[in-house]
Amino acid sequence: MRTMLDRPDFQDALRYVFEQKIPFCQALALKFRMVRGRAEVTFAKEDFMLGNAKLKVLHGGVTAAVLDSVAGIAILLKMAEHDPKPDLETQLRELARLSTIDLRIDYLEPAIAEAFVATATVTRLGKRIANVQMALHDDEGTCVATGAAAFSVRTARV
């Protein structure tokens, strides 16, 4: 049986919203894709993203923002899997129900690569709270940061 996650129009619409309609994601030039039903966010390092210009290390705030963003998208995908809506627009509106209530980032290695990929796994999706584990890898596969987040899943507005 085909689910919302399998629909190319859902994936395309989610990519458009994430990459074009969220100004901060657009500013960071984040690129969304689904790989085996999981959210991945990729981006290339730019000079304005540096926390240490001399060493060319990615700013910790960029790392945190990217991990927060991929976590939200992962929750939306989990919601689409567990509680599919009847149409694309209603499914995408679920994103508005989410807000970060706790975010923890562990910086493991200096992020000096030129490109990165962020992934997230939803560990619990409850009626009011969702928990997520995230990771940021560099273009050589080294895990440079991990994160854990809790998101509020607000009641849908009618």
Give a brief rundown of this model:
This protein is of the alpha+beta class and 158 residues long.
- Strand residues, percent: 35-45%
Q: Tell me the CATH topology.
A: Thiol Ester Dehydrase, Chain A
Total E-strand runs: 8
Report the biggest beta sheet as strand number plus sense, adding barrel if it closes. 6 strands, antiparallel
Q: Count helical runs.
A: 4
Q: Measured on Cα atoms, how large is the radius of gyration?
A: 16 Å
State the CATH class. Alpha Beta
Distance between the termini: 28 Å
Shape: globular
Mean pLDDT value: 93
Arrangement of strands in the largest sheet: 1-2-6-7-8-5
**In the residues, how many domains can be counted?**
1
Q: Which architecture per CATH?
A: Roll
Question: So, the CATH homologous superfamily?
Answer: Hotdog Thioesterase
Uncertain segments are none
Classification by helices and strands = alpha+beta
Overview of the structural elements:
- There is one protein chain.
- By secondary structure, the chain is of the alpha+beta class.
- It has a single domain, classed as Thiol Ester Dehydrase, Chain A (Roll).
- The chain has 4 helices and 8 strands; from the N terminus they run ααββββααββββ.
- The strands form 2 sheets. A 6-stranded antiparallel sheet has the order 1-2-6-7-8-5.
- A hairpin with a 3-residue loop joins strand 6 and strand 7.
- The longest helix is centred in the middle third of the chain and has 23 residues, at 60-82.
- The two termini are 28 Å apart.
- The model has no long low-confidence stretch (mean pLDDT 93).
